[in-house]
Amino acid sequence: MANVVVVGAQWGDEGKGKIVDWLSERADVIARFQGGHNAGHTLVVDGTVYKLHALPSGVVRGGKLSVIGNGMVLDPWHLLKEIETIRGQGVEITPETLMIAENTPLILPFHGELDRAREAQASVSKIGTTGRGIGPAYEDKVGRRVIRVADLGDDKTLEVRVDRALVHHNALRAGLGLEPVDRAALLAELREIAPRILEFAAPVWKVLHEKRRAGRRILFEGAQGALLDIDFGTYPYVTSSNVIAGQAATGTGLGPDAIDFVLGIVKAYTTRVGEGPFPTELLDEDGRRLGERGHEFGTTTGRQRRCGWFDAVLVRQTCATSGVKGIALTKLDVLDGFDELKICVGYELDGKRIDYLPTAADHQARCTPVYETMPGWQESTEGARSWADLPANAIKYVRRVEELIECPVALLSTSPEREDTILVTDPFAD
Ligand code: GDP
Ligand code: IMO
Ligand code: MG
User: Fold this and answer.
1) CATH number of this structure's domain 4-102+201-262, picked from the four choices 3.40.50.300, 3.90.550.10, 3.40.440.10, 3.40.1180.10
2) Residue nearest atom 18 of ligand 1, based on CA coordinates
3) pTM of the predicted model, to two decimals?
4) CATH code given to domain 266-423
5) Which of 53, 178, 180, 228 sees the fewest Cβ atoms within 10 Å?
6) Which candidate, 30, 16, 41, places its Cα nearest to that of 219?
7) Average pLDDT of 314-331?
8) pLDDT band at residue 78 under the 50/70/90 scheme
9) What number of helices (H) and strands (E) belong to the chain?
10) How many angstroms separate the CA atoms of 304 and 307, rounded?
11) Which of 130, 241, 247, 296 has most ligand 2 atoms within 8 Å of CB, for mutation?
12) Which residues sit with their C-beta closer than 6 Å to ligand 2?
């Protein structure tokens, strides 16, 4: 049985939630493998809008197993609130339909405080994080001082872990002018929440191996986008986890041989939230129009997303680093009505043409995009459900994108609604 990894191939918000929801009809298990509630995945099913942050997008479909993998960082208070919100929309969430890996690191309140305090420091240029403590929690994981889900099960272990974390954090907080953490209050809050989290805890690696052996299909749901990857993104303007497809294995406890197809989610133009380089950014009327037609406001923070033309150089690069076999091209409908569309096909750096984004920050800053201009279309593609419904120039645009990124379109999305999706190649086909 084929297993599929879904990853964002730009700077996030490509429409992963919609595509994961659509694909999850064909899957048995939907597993998140990195990131936390910095993600904001929007699903629209028959007019009802679901906004998911920490929960996998598969929860909305009944009868599937949703998994929070060890590669994520989990704010337990946020999760319980999100479960209540989604239950309030009529979705059933039980320990049979949601499992949390026991070795998942927890985001605690001091992580969020540290994240926000650092962003407020005038002496360092800010990243523009979501302020949700993602970076500090991953730092603690690698620093071997994070509290993990399993630690909630034993009071003695929990105290030892909290003390280890606080030695580090109280020293940092003193330097930032923050009060030391109230140890007793934190322990009391953790003890209070422990049973409500532990009811979902499981040895996820084992469950996934058993599912796989039984021929079940697993859909791995990525968050963020490959250009926010801690290694391959526009560092330091990135998130603090590996976002690329290889992380699906380490972030759940399956081997890399479990991955049969990597689907890259690609928006028909480019957006980014927060600071950092963005070669094709448009600060003019075209950019404003993309933002308005595409409703480009963050699902998590409500911030306005920066908008620009499609950058084929970047997507070719991210398809390579994630081993993308096919893409889901989303939001094609947002391009309806433009007279002309531009696609970035290369960069010019110090008078030389290059075909990738260099790593050095000063080189990135000096890269200017080389554009190809394509004719636009005036007809509406919104809600199109077959190729036959697409205007000729829209098909030309899609074909040119495929050529430039060296990867075929497997799915095409033409509105936020679940069913407004064109299937070209089934990623689950063996
Ligand atoms: P994610 O983070 O990758 O899951 O994406 P977000 O949910 O943050 O942002 C994508 C937005 O675009 C959401 O509001 C979706 O409902 C919407 N969307 C997804 N696909 C399409 C599409 O094909 N056309 C339009 N117009 N909107 C879409
Ligand atoms: P989804 O899954 C877009 C961005 C933030 C900031 C940087 C670091 O919805 O695509 P962090 O809080 O992670 O330390 O912030 O990463 N960022 C996202 N941008 N979509 C996301 O998730 C993002 N998650 C983080 O804006 O620039
Ligand atoms: Mg999003």
Assistant:
1) 3.40.440.10
2) 416
3) 0.98
4) 3.90.170.10
5) 180
6) 30
7) 98
8) very high
9) 12, 18
10) 9
11) 130
12) 8, 11-13, 38-41, 127-130, 132, 134-135, 223-225, 228, 239-240, 273-274, 299
